[in-house]
Specification:
heterodimer; A: alpha+beta; seven-stranded antiparallel β-sheet; five-stranded antiparallel β-sheet; about 40% helix; extended; B: Immunoglobulin-like; 1 helix; 10 strands; globular; cytoplasm (chain B); signal (chain B)
């Protein structure tokens, strides 16, 4: 190895000598092998040569020393070692021929290297512990000891540390090295490498002997860099850059051959740098098979340079042509991919797919290899007979004869001079035409007749042949039998007819020929004239010519130039009558039956008997056996795919196969081809394809049952030769004995079939609809050709076809048109059906793995469906069972019931049909809105998903900086916002309702000695402001009461929410202060704390104020000294009702509320502070009533749902919508907290501009009639009417998120709505009453954002609460409206841009643009929007009977409830009192709860003098029973547990128009006084 | 339940949150929870877990190893809503604020056997550069309101995320009665699953 690879190195070395240092370092990297042995560089002319030489000598000396040392230890390697330098020497010496040398030594080397490699491997294995202790230098160590010292130091800094220590321990020899190491390095490396190679071998050889020893003692292996480099060397190779001599590249003794010189073309080779080429060549040569890479000329094989000489870049763009123009995309209209749309035909028809019925009835071979000769004849005969029959049926000869007759008659009549009215000219023309036709027809008839006759003759001939054949072969193979029936004819008549015919013919022909003669004569004459003229001309010419002959000799040649040189015409011969007759008779004899000859009618029958097999000749028996072994079947191929096949049937002796099978092909694709393949099987052999039969696709009118059987012929080109009587196929045979007159027959036959479209169960043909092709294709052929006129598909459309027939005036009597006409007449009678629909998703059915019914039947599937549709009952259904059987029917019951009930009005709960309808309707609207909401909920915003800090603006930054500086514990701490809780991870008991009851004002006070009062002592003041004008007449009496009653009232507050009740301690006096916090737990419906669920909580918080009354129950006065025995009673004073939804959306409710105190509170009177009254009369008058200060909140604070961000569609003008957005944005910028409303959503979910809701609308006439002269009273009445319409917050019904505005008529129909609807209706009423009225959008307590109505009375503004019917002056401090955002009139919107927004502090004059920003202004004038409100409201009178009935029902229900609430006590009803109360309620209604107390009281006292009486009437609008029950419950009347208590309860319902019901409930408890 | 025939199938998952690769971050901990459909119910084991804080290994792999075990059993009647494990990784930022370092989710493997999953993790991006800066500065990076979002498709279109690193999970899945109920989850080709080599 070492030796062989040296030579290229030696050559390489000098070439690379110049960068010595670089080379050296490269050596270090590459390994020593690449270093050229410098001494051998004899060719170098460098200066350092002598230097090297010297160095080498020294080195040699050193080496010999070292070797001698080595030898002492390892004697074995010596011979080798000695040899190696000599080898090296040799190589270097003969460096130039090293190639040859290498070749020579190659095999030798291969054999050598093998074992060595092996050794090395084993050495490697052992090496892990090669190091001996220091006193024991191994061979390697010893080697290293010497060699490493020679390491050139400056070469590589990395190697420095390694040699250094060795140097210290080394010997003197290295020290003696004066030469610069860089110089010497090269040599040394070379040496070292050799030594090393040697040494390794030696070592390994030694190892071979003492492997065990080494294994035992050697320390951890160290693979020296040298070894590693050497190993790399084995793998790596650096190709030389030198030119490879040609002889190396060529096979031995071959001279290079240059094809170019020989004149052959070889292309220009690709440019490759010489050096690279050399490298490649060297590289290739190192491989054994390297030579094949070289061509004959000693160069690497290469294809011609593929690079073109001329640059072929795209043309450089000129300046004018911008690159964009070049890059411009051309638009090409999309070419519709003409999909074979016929294939895509509908499916999904529940009745099934399209079906093609292929009925294969049988197969007849007209020729078969197994045919005997007789069969061949029989087939021929049968064929001829068929032909004959067919001709006979058509009877064309007869038809033509008749036609001829008719034409002749016509000619006769035409010639008849008795018809003078026809112009002669015309006549002549038609006659000529007729004659021409006669000629034509006659010719045709003759041909037909002749054909008939020859056919008959042939039949007879074949039959005769057959007979003779049968005799010859002494057996009969076919049952065919021909009988010729003779039909006698009347000889005489026949003869006459014959003669007449001939006569007529002769005459005609004679005439014709006469005419022809005339014509020819004419032609002759003219031509004769011409000839004469020419002749003359010729003569003159000749004369001229002769004259001019001398001068113009060449004209001679021109002489015959008038080419036609007409010969002298011969006159035509006149027609010869006899010849004509002769001709006619000949033809007649030939083609026609001779007169008197009987008509021959052949009849073919199968009546003949076939000779039985045992009587036949042997060959025939073989044939018959062969036939028996054969069987045939058919494959049905649809669109080239096999769809079915018939059963295999044996071939009968008559070569007929009967199948009688019908294949119903259920197809999806349009049939393109329908093919039958005929297969024949011999015995049990493999079937052979005989032939293919292509069946036509039936027209769409061909329906099963109507399709006729058709026969399609087929033939096969197979060649069969049989060794029996069978004639074979494709093989010539002859009937003659001498083999002449050969016949070659191919297997052929007929398949009898019918293909038709199937008819579905319901009589619809299962035909795929045709695509309309050829539409628009109209041509001149239109009239002539039905197909080109209406298209092929039109042929299937019978109506079109009939139309076409009518248009083109087809001759219905033309026998050619006969079938067409018949078809049309059949079709237009309307029997066919062509589907005119197109089916979508025609492939759907393929994907249905179960039928729909089955799917629907699956309960599990249904459950899953309902759940995924988020049907409320199933929305949270968990763990749908696996099997249907585990799903109980019960699961669906509720749902189904609800579905059923959706349309059934149930009056049980609602006690009033109208309300029930409304409730249903509301439910439906709610569902639809909720569904829409659920959809909208899918739209997420970033904020819904990701919590992210807001971008801090400068103010926030400043604030936070400021915060750093602020005090930690400020003296006046600011309220900190509570942490909001999302509703998702809450459970029961987590949420509490906190109600802080602060104080109350002006509570009613007890009457002194209530049972004894004689005269009305109570102030008859009313709660209404209007009485304030004449108030104080009662004051003196009252003041007399006041000092006497020490204990006026001991009120306490009870809060009930969700049937949980808490109450405060008892305070004293009419202006108590409790300052207590009550905590009520909140339970969400069904434990569902989601936002949607919370929003729909309908519960109210009832805050009831009671008076605690202590009664002394000691019956015996003597015991009074010992103890007190009192009973506590509580009397209801009033209540405040706050819906939970309000609290939920407001987060907290803080303020002073007016207490809802019944109009009559028996035993109580309103405390009047006279001192106050005098001083602040005006203020007092406005703030009538009792008030309570409350603070309510939810702990922890819940995040209310956000409004739907859905953008609703709108019918408003786009500009207007943009303006609204702009307006709102501007307003929000200025006053972000003020409510600004421009568009709202109507009940159908569309955005509507708000002013469209405002329009004068008439209030019910009855209300107007009551106070005709008092507009103020009318206004109040109207407000009361509006307030009686039940309040139903949108937020509850519509999951809170979108506020839907219904128009007033919808509102009245629904009888439910929230503030907006009430306010709109009230405002509309006021507008119709002629008031100036606006809608006020603002915030009120406790409602929050709400709508009020503002009216302008003569000199002041009034603010109306539409839901309660109360009204307040602008400066009323107790007005619940706390701030005003905007005003809305019928034609404009004004936004409040004043500094304040409290109604007390603002100016309502909307004409001032500085205070109110109007929507429509000069820049955007009011466009005159039409109203969405109806023209007029129509009021129906409420059915009084129904109201009375409802009244009774409510009373009954309430009584039952009260008894239910008192389970431990007996509840007695005082009927007398009840009736009294019942009489009293209508009065209350009439006076609207005012001004009746005194009379009422006196009456009661008079009647129930013995009872201590406490009770009150409740007044509510009617919506449902439940609120009434709740209200009664909240009063706590039933809580009295005095043993002898009696109750009275009366209900009165006053009907207002439009089913608005005012409900009065009078509840009272009576205790008999003793 | 009818005797003899089972009407639920069981899915037992155990395994561990093995390790993570977050080249830029250190001292991370992870939280896992399962998201599953309505028909699923956990019957045993912990649905949620929070791991210890782990520091990067000192070797070149710089791996964060938790080896945090998962062991939970579900029962279900319906493969719809097959459980997914949702991972969220947190760790301190430069200022020591605890910020999210990645969210990721993967379905529990369907077929029984041993499965190794490497989940790419991502975090939501700030909506603007300024916010990015402030969130970095304040140590309040954007986070999902609910990490379970990453197991759902709804609402993802509004977010932008950046990928962060990888978490490797190991699942051993055992199912019971799946086949009986007609769900065939494929052959448990346990042999071909390469057993992870022991780290050296």
């Amino acid at each position: 190895m070492v030796s062989e690879e040296a030579p290229p190195d030696s050559q390489q070395g000098p070439a690379q000598e110049e960068p010595q240092t670089r080379l050296l370092s490269a050596t270090a990297r590459r390994g020593p092998r690449s270093l050229p042995p410098i001494p051998s560089a004899s060719r170098t002319g460098f200066a350092e040569f002598s230097m090297r030489e010297r160095m080498r000598e020294k080195l040699q000396a050193a080496r010999s020393k070292a070797e001698s040392a080595l030898l002492q230890e390892i004697p074995t390697p010596r011979p080798r070692r000695l040899r190696s330098p000599s080898v090296k020497e040799l190589e270097t010496e003969f460096g130039t021929e090293s190639g040859k040398e290498a070749e020579r030594t190659q095999p030798e080397d291969a054999s050598q290297s093998h074992p060595r490699v092996k050794f090395r491997d084993s050495a490697r294995k052992i090496k892990p512990k090669p190091r001996l202790p220091p006193g024991f230098p191994s061979a390697e160590e010893a080697y290293n000891f010497f060699t490493f010292n020679f390491d050139p130091e400056p070469e590589e800094p990395e190697e420095k540390p390694k040699p250094k220590p060795r140097d210290e321990t080394g010997q003197e020899e290295e020290k003696g090295e004066e030469e610069p190491p860089s110089q010497e390095g090269a040599d040394r490396m070379d040496e070292e490498e050799l030594v090393q190679g040697q040494e390794a071998e030696d070592f390994l050889l030694g190892l071979d002997h003492r492997a065990a020893d080494f294994l035992a003692v050697r320390p951890a292996d160290y693979e020296s860099a040298q070894v590693r480099l050497q190993r790399e060397q084995e793998m790596l190779f650096v190709p030389s850059r030198r030119t490879v001599p040609t002889y190396k590249k060529l096979p031995e003794n071959v001279q290079p051959r240059f094809l170019e010189d020989e004149g052959l073309y070889i292309g220009a080779r690709p440019e490759v740098a010489r050096g690279n080429q050399n490298i490649m060549e060297n590289r290739l040569l190192t491989q054994e098979t390297g030579r094949r890479w070289f061509g004959d000329d000693g160069r690497i094989l290469a294809l011609p340079n593929p690079i073109k000489l001329l640059p072929s870049r795209p043309p450089v763009l000129t300046q004018e042509q911008s690159p964009t123009a070049e890059l411009e995309t051309l638009y090409k209209k999309a070419v519709k991919y003409v999909h074979r749309s016929q294939q895509v035909i509908g499916s999904g028809d529940p009745s099934g797919n399209f079906q093609l019925d292929v009925d294969i009835s049988g197969l007849i071979f007209t020729h078969h290899p197994c045919f005997s000769r007789e069969h061949v004849l029989a087939a021929k005969l049968a064929q001829l007979y068929d032909q004959y029959v067919a001709r006979q049926q058509r009877n064309k000869a007869k038809f033509l004869t008749d036609k001829l007759q008719a034409l002749r008659n016509a000619v006769q009549t035409g010639l008849n001079p008795e018809k003078p009215h026809q112009s002669l000219d015309m006549n002549q023309k038609t006659i000529n035409e007729y004659k021409a036709e006669i000629r034509q027809t006659r010719k045709l008839r003759d041909a037909e007749q002749e054909r008939d006759r020859t056919l008959l003759k042939t039949i007879i001939k074949v039959w005769k042949e057959m007979k003779s054949l049968r005799e010859f072969q002494r057996c009969t193979n076919t049952p065919l039998k021909l009988v010729l029936r003779k039909e006698k004819v009347d000889q005489k008549a026949d003869e006459e007819a014959y003669e007449a015919e001939i006569e007529a013919e002769i005459r005609e022909l004679w005439e014709e020929q006469g005419e022809a003669y005339e014509q020819r004569m004419e032609a002759y004459r003219t031509s004769y004239q011409q000839w004469k003229a020419w002749k003359k001309a010729q003569k003159t010419k000749k004369k001229k010519k002769r004259q001019a002959d001398e001068e113009h000799p060449e004209e001679e040649t021109e002489e015959p130039h008038p080419g036609e040189a007409p010969g002298k015409p011969t006159p035509p011969e006149p027609p010869d009558r006899a010849a004509v007759e002769q001709q006619v008779r000949e033809r007649a004899a030939q083609s026609r039956r001779r007169p008197g000859e009987p008509t021959l009618v052949p009849e073919l029958s199968l009546a003949g008997s076939v000779t039985p097999g045992d009587q036949c000749p042997r060959a025939e028996i073989w044939r018959r056996d062969d036939v028996k072994r054969r069987s045939v079947y058919l494959k049905v191929l649809f669109n080239n795919k096999e769809v079915s096949r018939t059963v295999s049937r044996q071939l009968g002796p008559d070569f007929r196969v009967h199948f009688g099978q019908i294949f119903n092909l259920q197809i999806f694709n349009w049939p393109e081809s329908l093919t039958l393949q005929v297969y024949e099987m011999v015995g049990h052999g493999s079937p052979a394809l005989l032939a293919e039969v292509f069946l036509p696709i039936p027209e769409t009118t061909v329906i099963t049952g109507r399709a006729p059987f058709e026969e399609v012929e087929f033939s096969s080109n197979q060649h069969v030769t049989l060794d029996h009587e069978g004639v074979g196929s494709g093989v010539p045979f002859s009937f003659e004995a001498d083999g002449s007159n050969q016949l070659t027959l191919m297997t052929s036959g007929k398949v009898s079939h019918s293909v038709a479209w199937a008819v579905g169960e319901n009589g619809i043909p299962l035909i795929p609809p045709l695509s309309q092709q050829n539409i628009g294709f109209r041509s001149a052929l239109k009239k002539a050709d039905a197909i080109s006129s209406i298209g092929t598909s039109g042929l299937t459309d019978m109506k079109k076809l009939a139309k076409w027939a009518a248009e083109s005036r087809l001759d219905p009597n033309d026998p050619n048109n006969g079938p067409l006409m018949q078809l049309i007449s059949v079709a237009t009678s309307g029997e066919s059906y062509v589907p005119d629909f197109f089916r979508l998703e025609q492939l759907q059915q393929e994907f249905n793995f179960v039928s729909d019914e089955e799917l629907n039947r699956s309960k599990r599937f249904r459950l899953l469906c309902l759940r995924s549709q988020q049907v409320p009952e199933f929305r949270n259904y968990k763990q749908v069972p696996v099997y249907d059987r585990e799903i109980l029917e019960k699961v669906f019951q509720d749902y189904e019931k609800r579905l059923r009930d959706r349309n059934i009005i149930e009056t049980k709960e609602h006690t009033d049909t109208h309300r029930a309808i409304v409730a249903k309707y509301l439910q439906q609207v709610r569902e639809s809105v909720i569904n829409r909401f659920l959809i909208a909920k899918q739209h997420f915003l970033l904020a819904d998903l990701i919590v992210e800090e807001e971008v801090p603006n400068i103010s926030i930054l400043g604030l936070s900086l400021f915060k750093l500086a602020e005090q930690k514990r400020p003296l006046r701490p600011r309220r900190k916002g509570r942490k909001k809780v999302t509703a998702q991870n809450l459970s029961d008991g987590d949420i509490k309702l906190l109600v802080n009851i602060v104080r109350a004002y002006d509570l009613p006070v007890r009457k002194q000695a209530a049972s004894k009062f004689q005269q009305p002592s109570r102030s008859s003041r009313t709660f209404s402001e209007k009485r304030a004008a004449s108030p104080s007449t009662h004051s003196p009496t009252h003041s007399a009461d006041y000092p006497l009653g020490q204990v006026l009232v001991r009120p306490f507050v009870e809060v009930s929410f969700q049937r949980t009740i808490c109450h405060t301690s008892t305070a004293e006096g009419p202006n108590p202060s409790w300052n207590e916090e009550l905590e009520l737990p909140f339970r969400a419906p069904n434990g569902d704390y989601s936002t949607t669920s919370l929003q729909s909580v309908k519960d109210d918080v009832f805050i009831n104020i009671f008076d605690e009354v202590l009664y002394d129950v000691l019956e015996d006065d003597r015991e009074r000294g010992n103890g007190t025995h009192t009973r506590v009673e509580r009397h209801w004073l009033g209540c405040v009702k706050i819906p939970f939804s309000t609290i939920y959306f407001q987060a907290r409710i803080d303020g002073t509320f007016k207490i809802d105190i019944p109009p009559v509170l028996l035993g109580y009177s309103k405390e009047q502070n006279m001192v106050l009254e005098r001083g602040f009369e005006s203020v007092r008058s406005l703030s009538e009533g009792s008030y309570i200060t409350l603070f309510i909140t939810i702990e922890p604070q819940l995040i209310p749902g956000e409004s739907v961000r859905e953008k609703f569609e709108s019918q408003e003008d786009e500009k207007l919508l943009q303006a609204t957005e702009k307006f709102q944005a501007e307003c929000a910028l200025k006053f972000p907290k003020r409510q600004c409303l421009t568009t709202v959503i109507d009940i159908s979910g569309k955005t509507v501009f708000i002013t469209r809701y405002l329009k004068p609308l008439n209030p019910p006439q009855e209300l107007l009639d009551i106070h005709r002269d008092n507009p103020q009273a009318t206004a109040e009445l109207v407000a009361r009417y509006v307030s009686l319409i039940p309040f139903l917050p949108d937020t509850v019904s519509f999951a809170g998120l979108c506020d839907l505005w219904s128009t007033s008529d919808q509102f009245l129909d629904l009888l439910a709505g929230d503030e907006e609807e009430h306010a709109v209706l009230l405002c509309n009423y006021f507008l119709s009453l002629g008031k100036k009225a606006w809608l006020v959008m603002g915030n009120a307590i406790p409602e929050g954002p709400t709508a009020y109505v503002l009216t302008w009375e003569k000199n002041h503004y009034l603010i109306w609460n539409p839901c309660s019917g109360h009204f307040y002056g602008q400066f009323d401090t107790f007005c619940p409206l706390k701030n005003v955002g905007c005003l809305i009139g019928p034609d404009n919107i004004w936004f409040n841009i004043q500094q304040y927004d409290s109604p007390l502090r603002i100016n309502f004059d909307v004409t001032k643009p500085k205070l109110w920003k109007s929507f429509f202004s000069r820049s955007l004038p009011y466009p005159g929007l039409s109203s969405v409100q109806p023209e007029e409201l129509i009021y129906q009178r409420t059915d009084e009977g129904a109201a009375a009935e409802l009244q009774d029902r409510i009373e009954k229900i309430l009584k039952e409830k009260i008894m239910d609430w008192r389970p431990r006590h007996l509840t007695r009803w005082n009927r007398y009192c009840t009736s009294t109360l019942r009489h009293f309620l209508p009065l209350l209604e009439r006076s609207r709860g005012e001004d009746v107390e005194d009379t009422h009281r006196t009456e009661l006292v008079r009647q129930l003098g013995d009872y201590r009486f406490s009770g009150f009437p409740l007044h509510m609008p009617y919506s449902e029973v439940k609120p009434l029950v709740d209200a009664v419950y909240s009063t706590g009347v039933h809580n009295i547990d005095v043993p002898n208590v009696e109750f009275a309860l009366a209900v009165y319902i006053h009907p207002y128009p439009k089913n608005v019901l005012s409900v009065w409930i009078y509840v009272a408890s009576l205790i008999r006084n003793r | 339940m009818a005797a003899g025939t089972s009407t639920v199938f069981l899915l037992m998952v155990n395994g561990q949150v093995e390790s993570a690769q977050f080249p830029e971050y250190d001292d991370l901990y992870c939280k896992y929870c399962f998201v599953y459909g309505q028909d699923w119910a956990p019957t045993a084991g912990l649905e949620e877990g929070i791991s210890q804080i782990t520091s990067k290994s000192q070797d070149v792999r710089r791996e964060l190893v938790w080896n945090f075990p998962i062991d939970v059993t579900f029962k279900s009647t319906n493969p719809y809503g097959w459980p997914q494990i949702v991972l969220s990784v947190y760790g301190p930022d430069v200022f020591g604020n605890d910020v999210v370092r990645g969210y990721g989710a993967v379905h529990v493997p369907f077929s029984p056997g041993r499965h190794k999953r490497t989940i790419p993790m991502f975090v939501p991006e700030s909506t603007s550069k300024l916010q990015k800066f402030t969130s970095w500065f304040m140590g309040r990076r954007p986070e999902y309101r609910d990490p379970k979002v990453v197991a759902q498709g709804e609402g993802r279109e509004v977010t932008r995320v950046r990928s962060q690193g990888f978490v490797t999970l190991l699942f051993n899945v055992v199912t019971k009665d799946m086949r009986k109920l007609g769900y065939y989850t494929g052959p448990a080709d346990t042999h071909s699953i390469p057993v992870p080599s022991v780290p050296q």
